[in-house]
Specification:
This protein has 16 helices and three strands. It has 495 residues and is mostly helical. The chain folds into two domains: 11-206 and 264-468, Up-down Bundle (Growth Hormone, Chain: A), CATH 1.20.1250; 207-263. It is globular and about 60 Å long.
């Protein structure tokens, strides 16, 4: 690890580590919760705002696209401006956008505000992992990352439960308003207790052009895929959007490599094999698990006839499974290293997806869905902490924000692409089947195909894991001579 120079601003209060961990986890919980909490509310929200089932995914994708596109910018901002400033800025923007989404009156308003909310999440999320990486060290780091991963993963499953309760007992608008008290508490505690930290030698020039190019490219490419539900893959409309997306992404790569004086993504960071491998795996498995919440929501409500509250409670065992899996992996990480945990998690995930792909329209939750969905969620819990550890352990502390931004980008881009592609596949299978079977059976056959593909992708992720060095993650258990406040090779000076 090369020498770095950090600048720390002291405050009058010195918060205990558990409070710093809570600051990071609450915000990450909010950001992940907001991806999944809207799923259960989508049918009623779609009715009120006149969305179709196909167009309703843009309530999710508008958030995820800007989230993914600006994550790298948010991660770099942590290194340049400091984790405290970026955290507080992100939580303010995210909370205000949540209020706006809650009062939206049209579909256009909703999609626009969700895109703004995604930018707030992109600023906030990298700051949470940066706070952890720059606060904890030695054997405490994998435990802190395990807690962060458990909270983040549980946010996905708890979102289904909370979304169902709020939609069924109050209104779908409360799936956005619920963020407000979280935002106020987390922001207030951060202002009072979170110490500033930044790379003192870093330039403060951010690559906004690169961020706009990558966001525009992803949006255009995903729109092209979503568009195939109404236009063929070879139609001029689909091809034009696909070409635009690929052109913008190519322009992003050229800009970063040849033009940008301070690139958003210095490609040299990918010389770290653990970071590169972890991001490829996160891209693959993040997409499959992200899509799982979406399709199970429509299966519960559209096929089994569950109301929002019952559908929400159906996700609760998954939340418990994620928490258990994350805690187990964080405790084993220093002994086993990253790779065995990733391989076990990928195998369990593939088996869970294969099992759940056998669902039928008349299946019971307890007999056919509970166990395989629990296995999938447990696998998710096992995977996320080792992936976060691998992605951040091989880079300088001064690049912690960038590394966390790249990892979150891989998850969100994978999720958004997976949802767009798998939704198209599900629709195509349903359209072919509906002529010879019932509507419920046709929809279920589409969901079955989605889970079969998810199993295959998870198997691919299993083989990708072999690219990781065997000892990745074990070094974290070694005692460190650095300050307990920050894992840095140099003394930290108050600003």
């Amino acid at each position: 690890m090369s020498d770095i120079s950090l600048d720390v601003a002291s405050t009058d209060r010195h918060a205990p580590d558990w409070l710093i961990l809570c600051i990071a986890c609450i915000a990450q919980f909010m950001v992940v919760l907001d991806v999944s909490i809207v799923n259960v509310a989508l049918p009623r929200m779609g009715h009120d705002l006149h969305f179709t089932q196909s167009s309703a995914q843009w309530v999710v994708n508008a958030y995820v696209l800007t989230f993914a596109g600006f994550l790298l910018l948010g991660g770099r901002a942590c290194d340049f401006f400091g984790r405290r400033k970026v955290y507080i800025t992100g939580i303010i923007l995210f909370t205000l956008a949540s209020i706006g989404a809650g009062v939206a009156q049209t579909g256009t308003q909703m999609i626009t505000i969700r895109a703004i909310q995604g930018i707030g999440g992109a600023i906030l999320s990298p700051a949470t992992l940066t706070i952890i990486v720059t606060t904890f060290h030695g054997p405490r780091l994998p435990k802190a990352i395990g807690a962060w991963s458990a909270v983040a993963g549980a946010g996905g499953a708890v979102g289904g439960l909370l979304g169902g309760i709020l939609t069924g007992w109050a209104s779908w608008r409360w799936v956005f308003f619920i963020n407000v008290p979280f935002g106020i508490v987390a922001g207030t505690v951060a202002v009072m207790y979170l110490r500033e930290m930044r790379n003192r030698d870093a330039t403060t020039k951010l690559d906004v052009t690169g961020s706009v190019l990558v966001t525009g490219g992803l949006a255009a490419a995903i729109y092209a895929v979503v568009n195939t539900t109404t236009h063929s893959w070879t139609s001029s409309t689909t091809l034009e959007w696909l070409f635009l997306g690929l052109a913008l992404l190519a322009a992003f790569i050229f800009w970063e490599a040849k033009v940008a004086s301070h690139p958003l993504v210095p490609f040299k960071i990918f010389r770290s094999r653990p970071l590169t491998t972890a991001n490829l795996m996160m891209f693959l498995i993040g997409g499959t698990f992200f899509a799982m919440w979406y399709f199970l929501t429509y299966y519960f409500q559209g096929v089994l006839g569950y109301g929002p509250v019952k559908a929400g409670f159906a996700f609760f065992p998954m939340a418990l499974a994620i928490i258990v899996g994350a805690q187990i992996s964080s405790r084993l990480l220093s002994r086993t290293g990253v790779r065995p945990l990733l391989q076990i998690g990928a195998v369990l995930g593939a088996l869970g997806f294969l099992w759940i792909s056998l669902i039928k329209p008349a299946d019971s939750y307890a007999g056919h869905i509970l166990v395989p969905s629990f296995i999938c969620a447990f696998a998710m819990g096992l995977l996320f902490a080792p992936l976060a550890t691998a992605a951040t352990s091989g880079v300088d502390r001064s690049d912690a924000g960038l590394a966390s931004g790249i990892l979150n980008t891989a998850r969100q881009v994978g999720g958004s692409l997976a949802l767009a592609i798998l939704a198209t596949v599900a629709t195509d299978v349903k359209n072919h089947a509906i002529a010879t079977t019932s509507q419920a059976a046709a929809y279920t056959s589409g969901y079955d195909r989605v889970f079969q593909i998810s199993a295959l992708v998870t198997v691919v992720a299993f083989f990708v894991s072999f690219a990781l060095p065997r000892n990745t993650g074990r070094a974290l258990a070694a005692p460190s001579a650095t300050s307990p406040e920050v894992a840095s090779p140099l003394p930290l000076e108050p600003a």
